[in-house]
Amino acid sequence: MNLRTIRKRGLALLLAGVMTVGLAPAALATDGTPLESGLLTEPFLQVPGETSVNVVWFTEGDQAPATNQVLLYENGPDQDPTRTIDAETTKLSQARGGKTTEDYNDPTIRRSIWRHEAVVTGLPEYHGAEAEKVPYRVVSDGAQSEIYTLQAQAQEGTPMKILLTSDIQTKNMCAANYEKLYEAIGPVDAVLANGDIIDVPDRAYDWFDADSSFFRVLQGTSDREIGGVEYSGAPLLQNAPLYASIGNHEVMGRYSDTTPLNTQFNDPTTRAYAEDLYDRVNSDDDPTNDVSEADKEQFIQDNSFNTTTWEEVLTLPESDTGDERYYAVTIGDLRVIVLEVARIWRGNSVGSTSKYSEIPGASVDQYGFGQHIFEPIGEGSDQLAFLEEELQSDAFQNAKYKMVMFHWQFHSLGGNQIPAYTDPVASSVTDPVTGEAMTIYDYPLAQDYLANCVEPLLEEYDVDMVFNAHSHLWNRFETDSGMNILETSNNGNTYEAFLDTKSRTSAWPSVFNEGNDRAALAEHWDLSNYVLQGDPYGLAPIFPSVAALPNYEPYLESNTITEFSIFDTATGLVNSYYFDTSDPDSEVVLFDSFALQKDAEDPAPSVPFQDVDQKDWFYGAVQHAEETGLMDGVSEDAFAPEGTTTRAQLVTILHRLEGQPAAGENPFTDVAGGTWYADAVAWAAQNGIVDGVTATTFAPNDPVTREQMAAILYRYAQYKGYDVTASGDLSGYTDAGAIRPYAEAAMAWANGAGLITGVSDTTLQPRGNSTRAQVATILMRFCQKVAE
Q1: pLDDT (tens digit per residue) in 334-376
Q2: Helix (H/G/I), strand (E/B), else coil: 416
Q3: Which residues does 279 contact at the CB level (< 8 Å), separation at least 6?
Q4: In degrees to the nearest 10, what's the CA dihedral of 134, 139, 143, 145?
Q5: Which residue from 495, 735, 718, 465 is spatially nearest to 602, judged by alpha carbons?
Q6: Which residues pair with 484 in a beta bridge?
Q7: What is the reported pTM?
Q8: What is the spatial distance between Cα 196 and Cα 564, in angstroms, rounded to a whole number?
Q9: Rounded CA separation 324/317 (Å)
Q10: Bond before 667 cis per omega within 30 degrees
Q11: Number of Cβ within a 10 Å radius of residue 51
Q12: Whether 445 contacts 453, CB under 8 Å
């Protein structure tokens, strides 16, 4: 192969409005009908300055429109335009694929998509007044947009509502998410899109055509149907500037004119490999080498990875070393540093091109190089130096609010928390299945760049909040210094959370999974590097402060419930909301609110008890107990989570759950008539839910043991006609033999139904007393998992 024959592609065709061609064809919707405006997208706002803002829009056609302009209506939208600004036009160089899912991955379909960008200057300073906004529309030959408003960059002190979003990826619920946001909040003043805004970056369908494409959901032109309800998204980008970060889905792999686009996306290699490949096919020392530096760089990019389309679509602030890939910007009172923290996502199957291995016998030209990082952020990297310089800057230190935004999780309950964010460590083994040599990769947790290099800087320079994404979850953490870490990415779908009932076994090396045919290789991975539950770095998730999530957990993972977060600079609060698409008549619910500033006071949590903290594992259960009225506090401001629960108290809770039905005569001599629990005990005894400790006594004030609680709930479930067929295997618990015969079936059921788990991996403590926190948790699980 001679490099002089490599494909040479122009990056963008600069037209600058000088072409003299006919009227451009109207843009087409996915069903082949023209869009109402005749444009491919509505306009959107980029890089506002002190008295300026850029306006961008797209058209599609064989030729670019001859005239592309922004019209300003400074005397009002009902008056004639006062100014006309010409746009510069470029063509997207790698946008490909058809307009339907049948051909959207076809790289031979070259799309003629034209990007128009006008710089609007001479605007008034913007302090939040409506009079400081200027009505505008865009025109491309005979096509024109609706009239929207634009404004310069918000000045210090300007009240703003800033949308925190990410992980659009043409996912199902995004149109509903933004439509409900718009209904509940109204227009926003800026959008922070934290990566994975599209699925395959060179696939035009993901940007423009799909009913959940990036522009259609964020400009209100979608027609996504969920459960018979059509959602349009919301007109957000037309009136508010967009800032974005790079996630793994903004990065294309090795370029090809023939390989399907989704395959190209999943096929990145490292820059080091591409540079070595270049040296193998052409030498810079060869005197006959006439390859330019630009063509050399294009070759390396084509044979590793690129963000070409993402960079061509968006105009963002730039840094000296990162260009648009990482940068910092001031938005009113907020200073935000945007980093490129992304790497290729691969599966966990050892024996394939995955996180943990190459294919046995593969040559280096077939390598995927594990889950490699796209932009270095470790010690000595340009990006880490940029981060520290920005953190030290007056612009950051003097800002009222200080945020750092990057896509890959920092602290999270998501599955993508493993492996650690570090370079893969390669070694060679003999594959037990094929007998061939195989390269494998390990990821030492102790070498995580985010934990070792980034977090210490964020703490040192008093960052208020880290905005993360990537796992399609809502979850929040707080460090000891008060720095909040928010992931708010369950807007389109979810990939589950992993806390105490689920494990990340689909993310660790597959050799650890039962029955794997390469289990003999397990010794080559250090199991301690792969934390299966919770935050691998030890932080406890924070339960929502305003209202319980439907699952009463400190996270939202749902494919029917969508959530969004808004930072309100006027109040300093970050507010998170959810909407249940399975119940389209339901309200948008504010469920969490916290002060972004470290030293600001958070709103009072919804649970009024001083001895229950939002980081406590049982917070959600206490929330559930209080909301349902099943349990009261021991006083107005105390719950006593470590206190014991008596037999009388448990029976009274079930009596409340049943609606406090009338009861007959009490059979127990130690249950006096007129006591607060007498009716509950009589009702439970009459219906076979409780027995006495003897034929005539109930022992109402004795603490209820774990096996007694299991037996009482088991009988109550039978009384209600619930399914009690679940049965857990208790043989793994060393104290299973201590379960009394009357409770054996009940304990097996309670364990199998997920109500009662071990107090450790090997002990059940069946005769141990149940604390109030444990009782609240078991009752919540009973209501969620058994009482249907």
Answers
A1: 999 999 999 999 999 999 999 999 999 999 999 999 999 999 9
A2: helix
A3: none
A4: -20
A5: 465
A6: 465, 478
A7: 0.90
A8: 16
A9: 6
A10: no
A11: 14
A12: no
